[in-house]
Amino acid sequence: MMRTNRRLIMLSALALIIVAGPQAILSATSDDKAEVRSTVQRIFNQMKARQYDDLYDSLSETSKKRVTRQRFTSSMRRADDNYQLDRIEIGAVRVRGNTAIVDTVIYGRVLRPTEGEGKIVAQQTLVREDGQWRVSSTSPGAGLSSRPARVYLKRDGRWVDITAALRSAAGRRRS
């Protein structure tokens, strides 16, 4: 009788783990994904509002080691006259451990050198540090995929990829 009760308890516990286990795992992943989405939206809002000091605080420690607060904020301010952000579309979110990759499309208006509608299609990499998600500019995506950003301008009602032209122009400026 005691052996039967023990087996029954073990089977009940196993059944509970089998039924509840995946749900707990899924909800933790959903919570992580929701937190990552919220972080990406908050960071976009900081960019749009030109809150560059707050934006700097959203960078990972590794990213902060590569650029000082003053250099980061002055660089962002210099670019203010070149674009105006409108909105962000947050697509797929992939989380593995303390790294997240987020597909995003950022829409805005290019003001210089020519005015027009533009968008940037990019994967944002975030890392969890001290319990908070932060933007990482150095993470290769931890195997989650991280493709280079693509820049588009709208011409005659269709999106034209100008990424190669921008990279070429940047290369000429460095030479």
Overview of this protein structure:
The chain has 175 residues and is an alpha+beta fold. It has a single domain (2-174), classed as Nuclear Transport Factor 2, Chain: A, CATH 3.10.450. 47% of the residues lie in helices and 31% in strands. The protein is built from 5 helices and 6 strands. Strands 1, 2, 3, 4, 5 and 6 form a 6-stranded antiparallel sheet that branches. The longest helix is centred in the first third of the chain and has 47 residues, at 2-48. The radius of gyration is 22 Å and the shape is globular. Residues 1-6, 11-28 and 139-145 have low confidence and may be disordered.
List the helices and strands and how they pair.
Elements: H1 2-48, H2 52-57, H3 61-66, H4 69-79, E1 83-96, E2 99-110, E3 116-129, E4 132-135, E5 150-155, E6 158-161, H5 163-174
Antiparallel strand pairs: 1-2, 2-3, 3-4, 3-5, 5-6
Summarize the model shown.
The chain is α+β, with helices and mostly antiparallel strands and 175 residues long. It has five helices and six strands; from the N terminus they run ααααββββββα. A hairpin with a 2-residue loop joins strand 5 (150-155) and strand 6.
Which keywords apply here?
Nuclear Transport Factor 2, Chain: A; six-stranded antiparallel sheet; alpha+beta
Q: Kindly estimate the percentage of residues that lie in beta strands according to DSSP.
A: 25-35%
Q: Provide the low-confidence segments as ranges.
A: 1-6, 11-28, 139-145
Structural class: alpha+beta
CATH H level, superfamily name? NTF2-like, domain 1
The count of helical stretches stands at 5
**Domain tally:** 1
From the spread of the alpha carbons, the general shape counts as globular
Rg: 22 Å
CATH class: Alpha Beta
Quote the distance from N terminus to C terminus: 85 Å
Mean pLDDT: 79
User: Portion of residues in helices?
Assistant: 40-55%
